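Researcher: Next sequence.
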Amino acid sequence: MADTLPGASAPAHWNLDTVVAQLRDSREVTHKIRYQGNIRELPSKAALVGILQGLCAALFPTHYGRAGLTDESIDYFVGDTLNTTLSLLSEQVRRGLVFGTDAGKLTGAQLTERAQQITREFASQLPAIRALLVSDLQAAYQGDPAATSISEILLCYPGTVAVIYYRLAHALYRLDAKLVARLISDIAHSDTGIDIHPAAQIGGSFFIDHGTGVVIGETAIIGQHVRLYQAVTLGARRFPADATGALIKGNARHPIVEDDVVIYAGATILGRITIGRGSTIGGNVWLTHDVAPGSNVSQADARSNCPE
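Model: Next structure:
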């Protein structure tokens, strides 16, 4: 009997024994990058996608959960969803804690207990997070004449998805689940094109209109009632290094945007500068200096004030 069917190609031979052996040598010897040399277990981005879906369903059950929920069933649905989702989240938090600076001092049981404590505290913050998100939704409805309802904003606006994920990630980041928080931000970036570092501080009634290309850096501080349009960058101007040439991490290097500021599409605002309360920053402005409260900055204004 022939080894292959008539007309079929013969099996390919890829020399896999050699390739697999060389990859093992790269992983284990010549190019080893595993954390602390031996940690294989990582948080799962796929698991976090499901966890985010569960958290969104608990926060807004009929929009992100089940449309047919009733007054009799909705609390049961929320409780059951949270019970499952928080258990899954605790495991991902535990995996992420392994990458913390103090992880080597903790046993496996202690890491598990710490993850459960973080998850429990995170769960207690969900009502406050939802209150902030409702203020964001109201800001979107009031700030966009095209919006016909809060439901449309929840279902159709990528900026809303990015802000929901940011608020969840920010809470976890502040509780020291930093790797999980960063992964959530990356999921939001992939889904929406909006990149918000979970350490950024953002006040209530925040609205990102359209949204694609928005970048908000780690140490940015944004006040209340701020509106951004697409392709706005709140970034760093310089990256200082230490005596060895390594970048200094964690220093304040992103803008402070005070309350009631509007920043139009394509504006790039760099460095630890302050945009004063009630200001409007025009489209495509490149800004590296402080702006007084109540200012209106156009491209021409920004050019005339740029340092030599």
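Model: The first helix runs from residue 16 to 30. The mean pLDDT is 91.
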